[in-house]
C-alpha cells in the first residue's frame, strides 16, 4: 500500500489513508488484495449510531464479508463492557475490546503484539473520529479508514476534543489533505485508493 509521504504533524498523526461516507463504501476485496489481514473497527457512530443496541443487516453483511475474505475482524470501543459485548455477541464477533482507552496505545498494543507475524501495513483501523481512531492507527503506523459519523458526535466528545477535532479538519483542509464531507470516491489525493 502506498500512502502520502508528506511530512509534518498533521500528515504523520491525523491523516487517514482513505475517507469514505460509511463502512458500506469499503471494498473488502480490495483490502484483501492490498494485503490487509486484520481490521480493527470502532463501534459507536462507525457501525451503528451510539443509541443502537444491536447490529443491523448492513453491519452483519459487512462483518461477514470481512471475515469470509479471510481478514480477521476485531471490534474496538471506548465504551463499557456490557455495551460492546452485547453488540459483539449479536454480530457474531468473537474478538472485541471494551474500554479501549483510545488514542492511548496500551490495550491496542496487546492485540497487535499477539499477532506479531503481521506487518503494520497488513492492519487497518476503521473509525469515525480523527483524534481517536485515526490517531491510534497512525501511532502504530497502520492504515486507516475514516468514515463520516452516523450521527453527531458532539454529545460524547468533551468540548476540548470537539474543538480539537474541528481544528484538525480545518487544518487538513487548509493543507489540501482532507476536506470534511468531500469523500473523493474513497481516495485522498492520487496516492491511495481502495474503492
Commentary on this structure:
With 195 residues, the protein is of the alpha/beta class. The chain has a single domain (9-189), classed as HAD superfamily/HAD-like (Rossmann fold, 3-Layer(aba) Sandwich), CATH 3.40.50. Helices cover 36% and strands 15% of the residues. The protein has 7 helices and 8 strands, in the order H-E-H-E-H-E-H-E-H-E-H-E-H-E-E. Helix 4 (81-91) links the parallel strand 3 (72-76) and strand 4 (96-97). The chain is globular, with a radius of gyration of 15 Å.
Q: How many H/I helical runs? A: 7
Instruction: Give the total of beta strands.
Output: 8
Mind telling me the C-alpha Rg? 15 Å
Q: What's the CATH class label?
A: Alpha Beta
Helix-strand pattern: HEHEHEHEHEHEHEE
What is the CATH topology descriptor? Rossmann fold
Amino acid at each position: 500500500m502506498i500512502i502520502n509521504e508528506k511530512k509534518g504533524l498533521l500528515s504523520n498523526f491525523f491523516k487517514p489513508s482513505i475517507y469514505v461516507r460509511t463502512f458500506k463504501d469499503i471494498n473488502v476485496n480490495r483490502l484483501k488484495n492490498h494485503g490487509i489481514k486484520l481490521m480493527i473497527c470502532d463501534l459507536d457512530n462507525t457501525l451503528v449510531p451510539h443509541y443502537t443496541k444491536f447490529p443491523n443487516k448492513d453491519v452483519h453483511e459487512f462483518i461477514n464479508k470481512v471475515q469470509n475474505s479471510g481478514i480477521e475482524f476485531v471490534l474496538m470501543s471506548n465504551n463499557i463492557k456490557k455495551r460492546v459485548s452485547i453488540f459483539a455477541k449479536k454480530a457474531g464477533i468473537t474478538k472485541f475490546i471494551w474500554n479501549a482507552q483510545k488514542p492511548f496505545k496500551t490495550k491496542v498494543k496487546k492485540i497487535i503484539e499477539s499477532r506479531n507475524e503481521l506487518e503494520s501495513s497488513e492492519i487497518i483501523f476503521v473509525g469515525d473520529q480523527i483524534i481517536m481512531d485515526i490517531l491510534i492507527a497512525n501511532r502504530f503506523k497502520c492504515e486507516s479508514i475514516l468514515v463520516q459519523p452516523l450521527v453527531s458526535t458532539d454529545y460524547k466528545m468533551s468540548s476540548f476534543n470537539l474543538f480539537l477535532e474541528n481544528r484538525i479538519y480545518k487544518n487538513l483542509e487548509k493543507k489540501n489533505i482532507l476536506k470534511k464531507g468531500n469523500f473523493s470516491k474513497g481516495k485522498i489525493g492520487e496516492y491511495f485508493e481502495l474503492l
